[in-house]
Write a structure and sequence with these properties.
Elements (H helix, E strand, L loop, with lengths): L2 E9 L4 H17 L3 E2 L5 E9 L3 H10 L4 E3 L2 H5 L4 E6 L6 H10 L3 E4 L7 H14 L3 E3 L7 H11 L6 E9 L25 H17 L2 E9 L4 E3 L5 E3 L5 E8 L3 E8 L10 E7 L2 E5 L4 E5 L23 E2 L9 H15 L7 H20 L3 E2 L6
Bound molecules: nicotinamide-adenine-dinucleotide.
The site of nicotinamide-adenine-dinucleotide has 19 residues, from helix 1.
Length: about 375
């Protein structure tokens, strides 16, 4: 059976997301499974062309995984004879010029979120990609996670009746970096380096709400920098200038209210690092990254408020697990496979740079809402 090789310029693979989720768990995992079967009987074989700033790190990474192609020059990578796709998981600030160079070189582009730092830039990138006629995509990994796929199954099956509200709780304690190293890169906590909770997480909340529940129509956000001093990768103290928590209220089409707390200064008392509770007239569900549990109208308890009595019922035991009924692969890999098939066969692909721009729009409006202390409409986007 013949094999079609497709070169993917991968920029940012020395980083957390680029290495673990995109290179190892997606592209190399596709190679480990023998490539990606195409409808015409051929197999697609992704060939990474690593690009980055640090020669020593890139060389070590390429050697570790037996990869032949790597360079510290983006131009050289884009000019590689195999290169058809450019992928970006650099720090957010470095993304826009690199994506523009890739589009100008006629490459298909796929990128981590947020696709840019401002809505104008995100829209410009979407426009440039459309004008150049290249395939384009933005990572929306949460949509491909087992817990949220089960939630979507419930929505599609009409489990909820009329959906009333969504409450999301995201976060965990990110160490300050003094007596225990921080488990996230320090740029995340500096606004001047493209950091901040809203810019990081509102792009996720936009596509989760839009795609699973209903389109977002307005936003009110309150932000905080709970920990104004942190210590960086080298143990040096720095001022945390970005928001490390965002408390958002979103109005969705159809009068649904969504409220999502996002914080890197919260200790976890949940089953998973993010959970969404959806309440509807017929039933409710709590979905995390992996699991989802439900409570139907018919099995809903009838508590009566009485602070004089101890809790009368085991509320958390009154929910029922939604079964897998399927085999779930890594969410990043699933989306990569969809994008690779889109590029090679023209199959439909919904999660493009315009969808990515919607996430940047919500982040930008969220930050403005927090600054101005008011609710803002989220207008429809057009290219
Ligand atoms: N989809 C998700 O769930 C998810 C989760 C975390 C991060 N992200 C996104 O992925 C991107 C990378 O995040 P990360 O956590 O992997 O970051 P990271 O700091 O671990 O990696 C950043 C990468 O960018 C490179 N880089 C290029 N220019 C740089 C510069 N000027 N300064 C510092 N690094 C530079 C680094 O060498 C490294 O390879 C961000 O845009 C972030 O928003 C997405």
């Amino acid at each position: 059976m013949s094999r079609k090789v497709i070169g993917i310029v991968m920029n940012g693979v020395t980083g957390r997301m680029g290495y673990r989720q995109h290179l190892v768990r997606s592209i190399l995992a596709i190679r480990e499974q023998g490539g990606l079967p195409l409808p015409d009987g051929r197999t697609l074989w992704p060939e990474p062309i690593l690009v980055g700033r640090n020669e020593a790190k890139l060389r070590a990474l390429a050697e570790r995984h037996d990869l032949a192609h790597w360079t510290t020059s983006l131009d050289e990578a884009l000019a590689h004879p195999l290169a058809e796709i450019y992928f970006d998981s650099q720090v957010t600030q470095a993304r826009e010029p690199a994506l523009k160079a890739a589009i100008a070189a006629g490459k298909h582009v796929y990128t981590e979120k947020p696709t840019a730092e401002t809505l104008d830039s995100a829209l410009e990138l979407a426009r440039l990609a459309r004008e150049a006629g290249v395939a384009n995509g933005a990572v929306q990994d949460k949509l491909f996670l087992p817990g949220l796929l089960k939630l979507k199954r419930l929505v599609d099956g009409g489990f909820f009746g009329r959906i009333l509200s969504v409450r999301g709780e995201f976060g965990y304690w990110v160490f300050e970096g003094d007596w225990q190293p921080a488990q996230r890169p320090s740029w995340n906590y500096r606004a001047e380096d493209g950091g901040g909770m809203i810019l990081d997480m509102f792009p996720h909340w936009r596509y989760v709400l839009d795609n699973l529940i209903a389109p977002v129509r307005s936003v009110y956000a309150h932000t905080a920098t709970h920990l104004p001093q942190r210590h960086d990768e080298r143990g040096r103290p720095y001022d945390a200038t970005a928001d490390d928590a965002a408390y958002g209220i979103f109005e969705l089409e159809g009068g649904i209210t969504a409220q999502i707390n996002s914080s890197w200064a919260v200790r976890v008392d949940r089953d998973e690092l993010v959970e969404f509770q959806v309440d509807g007239t017929e039933g409710s569900a709590v979905a995390g990254l992996r699991n989802c549990r439900v409570q139907h109208r018919a099995t809903t308890p009838k508590p009566v408020w009485n602070p004089d009595l101890p809790v009368t019922e085991p509320f958390r035991h009154q929910w029922q697990a939604v079964p897998d009924n399927d085999e779930f692969d890594n969410g990043f890999k699933v989306q990569w496979e969809l994008f690779l098939r889109h590029v090679t066969t023209g199959s439909p692909y919904h999660w493009d740079l315009l969808e990515g721009a919607k996430g940047v729009q919500l982040a930008e409006l969220g930050l403005r809402s927090a600054r101005e202390g008011r609710r803002l409409d989220v207008p429809a986007l057009e290219l």
